[in-house]
Amino acid sequence: MKRSFFLSFLSLIFITTSCLAAPKHSKKKHSHQTKITKKITTVKKAKTAKTVKAVIPDIPATPAITLATNNPNLPPIIAAAVKMDTAAQQAIIIDHDTGRVILEKNADERVYPSSMTKIMTAYMIFERLKKGTIQLDTPITISERAWKMGGSKMFISLNSQVSVEDLLKGVIIQSGNDACVAIAEGVSGSEEVFAAEMTERAHALGAKNTTFKNASGWPDPEHLTTVRDLMLIAQHVINDYPQYYPIFSEKEFSYNNINQPNRNPLLYNNSGCDGLKTGFTDIGQYGLVASAKQINLDGSEKRFDLVINGLPSMKARAQEATKLMTWAMKNFTTVTAIKGGQILATAPVWLGAQDTVALTVAKDYRITVPELGVKDIQVQTVYDTPLNAPLPAGHVVGKAVITAPTFETPLEVPLITAVEVKKAGFFKKIKASISYLIWGQS
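Structure (tokenized):
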């Protein structure tokens, strides 16, 4: 009797071991698709779709609007909404949140940045304020060189002492060339050293096609940048120094009993603009770096950044900037295609303490799409099934694929387990193995 029981037990172990060692299921891709129906983060189930093979590690960095409008599969109404041209010689418009380029024209052509240079000058001062090497109330003595500077001026007095805060406002609001020289000399000893530091820092930020020879944008044949680089610098100002960025939205500043208005035309037309800087030189003509934001009905924010250059007059600059920013705000939106922690699918687990595991993503994924195309955003999950226990929480098991109008290629993001799944206990493994032997399923 004992011998019979022992032999039966050994046989059961042998069968169980064989089943556990063998392939549990033939692996196949499981694909599930969801569709965005509103400008909010909820999704609802749709029919199963085919696996998407494109591999995109992040949101496309620089797809131009020309690529979107050249897509023959775009519905005519969306194609019309996203089509735009500009009289500017160089231009770029970007969704600040996602980095999506919605329009660009000669964005990498080297240009004279004129007073738009002062955005970088301000950034350098913000950095020093953060490090504590200077304070807003630090006094700076005005040299003869600073006092004599031509062009737009703050009208600082020779040998006077002016605070860093007042000089910053003179640089940003009044576009004072004298203020730029004074603050550069005050923190670096000379404007030449300060300009070299500006160039080095700009390159570190990613503005590789930029060379600064002075702090003001005073004409110099080697003082060059691109509108894409100016955009990048402006985005760093907004993101890195939100405590100082509001200075760019101040509409006027008075110094030495002289009141001067901010030259940014978008600050005065209810466009949501809160920065940044105009520029003009005879050779570079009129330019503008601007940023504007709008609060959506669901409480989320969208912000677009714009750089234009090479316009023939102040009026043309104001008209073109207003036209382009209005177009961007009215025709594009930023939506959360997938919210971090949102359950996108439930996958079966082989020999786990739980039979299934929820699948999600680690963070929010926001995308820029035409307003008219929000309803066409789709999210598809692709993963191997079944998944094998054990599975730690956050383990990558597949991908979520986001498709939307004007996306030339889908956006793929890691699909992860929402919770940990431990291995099944001994008896559950035996039960699963027997079930697999008899019915071919766990």
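The chain has eleven helices and 19 strands. The radius of gyration is 30 Å.
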